[in-house]
Amino acid sequence: MFQTILLPLDGSRQAEGILPHAIALAAAFGAAVELLHVIPASAGPHRAGPADPIGSRMKRADGARYLSEKASELRAAGVEVAATRVEEGGAAEVIVALLRDGGYDAVGLTPHGDGQWRYLSIGCTAVAVVLNAQTSILLAPDSPTHRGDASEPTSPYPYRRIMAPVDCSPRSDWAVGIAATLARKSGAHLQVVHFLLPPEVVSRHPTGGSARSLVERMVETNRAEARRYLDETVQRHQTPDLSLEGVVIHGHSGPAEAVGVFSEEEDIDLVILSAHGRGVSSEWPLGGTAAKLMLRAQKPVLLLQDLPHQRRLREAAPASARALASDLRTSR
Question: Is 191 exposed, middle or buried (0-12, 13-18, 19+ CB in 10 A)?
Answer without folding.
Answer: buried
